[in-house]
Amino acid sequence: MSTYLIIGGSSGIGKQIVSDLLSQGASVISMSRSQINAIPQGHIKHFQHDVCSDESFPEIESGLDGIVYCPGSINLKPFKGLSINDFQEDMNINFFGLVRSMQAYSSNLNDGASVVLFSTVAVNTGMPFHTSVSAAKSAVEGFGRSLAAELAPKIRVNIISPSLTDTPMSAKLLKSERQKEASNDRHPLKRVGTVNDISNMATFLLSSNSSWISGQVFNVDGGMSTLKLL
Ligand SMILES: NC(=O)c1ccc[n+]([C@@H]2O[C@H](COP(=O)([O-])OP(=O)(O)OC[C@H]3O[C@@H](n4cnc5c(N)ncnc54)[C@H](OP(=O)(O)O)[C@@H]3O)[C@@H](O)[C@H]2O)c1
Predict the structure, then answer these.
(1) For the domain with range 3-220, which CATH number is right: 3.40.50.720, 3.40.50.10840, 3.40.720.10, 2.60.40.10?
(2) What is the pLDDT of residue 41?
(3) Which pLDDT score, from 0 to 100, does residue 36 have?
(4) How far is CA 59 from CA 33, 39, 62, 155, 160, in A?
(5) Which residues of the chain have pLDDT under 70?
(6) In this structure, are residues 69 and 7 in contact, taking their beta carbons and an 8 Å threshold?
(7) Which of 78, 63, 41, 72 is nearest to 141 (CA)?
(8) Residue 229 C-alpha to ligand 1 middle, in angstroms?
(9) Which atom of ligand 1 sits closest to the CA of residue 198?
(10) Bond preceding residue 153 cis, omega within 30 of 0
């Protein structure tokens, strides 16, 4: 039975990935700052840990067939309104938390394991108010590609780059009916993403069905990054 570590498995996309992996019969270890109440069968353990803290990461003894790193941010502000501290916070949660996590657990990865990271559509499609988050996610993409090269052929690393997806993180952007309609309409496929849209790609990338894919960035974005409707 495969065992996966889902960092940020208590909410949004990560929570859906945990649920989908458990339905597929996998074993799951999760981690987040908050505690989760019910642990279903197959969910071996939930660690309460802040990946941005200086405390050492909880020890995991078992081998891992995959790691997914979900913590991130959507801090959208005009560049003039962003302080150095805002940039540092975005780097900390999106990038340094990822580096710390991989330093803690990469030696647990079994041969054939798969790592899945998250970027954003705004890295390759310039969008106003995204300077801080797109800079931090660009670091994730560069890190992920380099790590994929370094760990090949035994371990694969891929990145998912979503557009706006309905989760607790994006709730403030999808509060009103007007915001939801405008956001749906901005996407060529006329809707924002669901956690299932993103989890489907993540579980594919974790599975052996994607065993010839590494070092890639997948735009799961309703056509946002590549299509322009006339
Ligand atoms: N939703 C979107 O529209 C969208 C678009 C593009 C990219 N993305 C990316 O997709 C990924 C998942 O986003 P999401 O929307 O599913 O977010 P979410 O609903 O806010 O979930 C984030 C998860 O990470 C955990 N987390 C946050 N900070 C943490 C920390 N310091 N230490 C440990 N765990 C932490 C959260 O749990 P706790 O709060 O309990 O710690 C939660 O389980 C992110 O990297 C995000 O940048 C999302």
Answers:
(1) 3.40.50.720
(2) 80
(3) 87
(4) 16, 19, 9, 21, 27
(5) none
(6) yes
(7) 72
(8) 30
(9) 10
(10) yes
